[in-house]
């Protein structure tokens, strides 16, 4: 069933609102749309100038999914778009027409497509749609078999110490799945500078504690260790946005944390204390505001590598 709704002056056609997209918790498309509309004030500042890659699950999280980068062709005329050079993974095209989620109706439109996850790069476009140098550094902490978010918290603590020593001002969030992600606002010399710095940092942590940390991707190396994935700084790659839903059975959210919560995990707090669903996240935002406040933090120059 299709129906037309009006959101902030925009007409939008929505459909199948009662369709269950997360069967394990009975979470429907209507609830997905409602969450993205309500979380918009803190989500939009983190994605508004970043071309969006959608992960769409039209049959729900138990069905088939697909990534969609060249998504502007589906969009209403009021959704902003930008033409950017195609990354190497998109064969047969020199450019992609990508969406910029800039307003609440844009989020409602994408949620209606069952775009459960929103992924963005670590760079923005300017007013003319031209890609700028990366303005964020990200280190994705992915626990291997036999490890979990507690081990990630230990590595995040060490990363924070090193980033602060290098003059950076890091923030941290859950991935919404198993791990943590540490970010810092930066200025850099060239497009590859963040990757060089992040790789060197991951290699140094591995050198210090090879029994706990790994910087290489091979699965055979990862049991009992935390992967410090530095490769997300490649300008062709994207990372799940803060406050994005994840296509996991419990409808969890990639949620900004206080560093005190990371320390609590290191001190024995229940790992479930950092697994958040939509209602939890909305309550946290009402209480704490945007904990992923990179715009208000020191934007430091990355050390030369």
TrEMBL record:
Keywords: Ligase. Residues 28-292 form the DNA ligase D polymerase domain. Pfam families: LigD_Prim-Pol. The keyword Lyase does not apply. Its EC number is 6.5.1.1. InterPro entries: LigD_pol_dom (IPR014145), NHEJ_LigD (IPR052171). This is ATP-dependent DNA ligase. The keyword Ligase applies. It comes from Modestobacter marinus. GO terms for molecular function: DNA ligase (ATP) activity. The gene is lig.
């Amino acid at each position: 069933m299709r129906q037309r709704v009006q959101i902030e002056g925009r007409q939008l056609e929505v459909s199948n609102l009662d369709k269950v997209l997360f069967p394990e918790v009975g979470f429907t498309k209507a609830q997905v749309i409602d969450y993205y509309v309500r979380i918009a004030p803190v989500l939009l500042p983190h994605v508004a100038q970043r071309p969006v890659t959608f992960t769409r699950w039209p049959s729900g999280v138990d069905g088939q999914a697909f990534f969609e980068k060249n998504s502007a062709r589906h969009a209403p005329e009021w959704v902003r778009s930008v033409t950017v050079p195609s990354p190497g993974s998109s064969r047969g095209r020199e450019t992609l027409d990508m969406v910029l989620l800039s307003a609440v109706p844009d989020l409602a439109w994408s949620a209606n497509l069952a775009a459960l996850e929103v992924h963005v790069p670590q760079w923005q476009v300017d007013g003319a749609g031209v890609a700028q140098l990366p303005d964020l550094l990200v280190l994705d902490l992915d626990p291997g078999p036999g490890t979990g978010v507690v081990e990630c918290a230990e590595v995040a603590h060490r990363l924070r110490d090193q980033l602060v020593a290098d003059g950076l001002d890091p923030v941290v969030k859950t991935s919404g799945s198993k791990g943590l992600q540490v970010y810092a606002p930066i200025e850099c010399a060239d497009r590859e500078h963040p990757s060089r710095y992040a790789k060197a940092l991951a290699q140094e942590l591995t050198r210090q504690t090879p029994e706990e940390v790994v910087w290489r991707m091979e699965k055979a190396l990862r049991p009992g260790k935390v992967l410090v994935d530095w490769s997300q700084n490649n300008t062709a790659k994207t990372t799940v946005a803060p406050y994005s839903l994840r296509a996991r059975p419990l409808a969890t959210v990639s949620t900004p944390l206080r560093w005190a919560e990371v320390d609590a995990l290191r001190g024995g707090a229940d790992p479930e204390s950092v697994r958040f669903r939509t209602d939890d996240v909305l309550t946290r935002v009402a209480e704490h505001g945007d904990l992923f406040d990179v715009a208000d933090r020191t934007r430091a120059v990355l050390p030369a590598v």
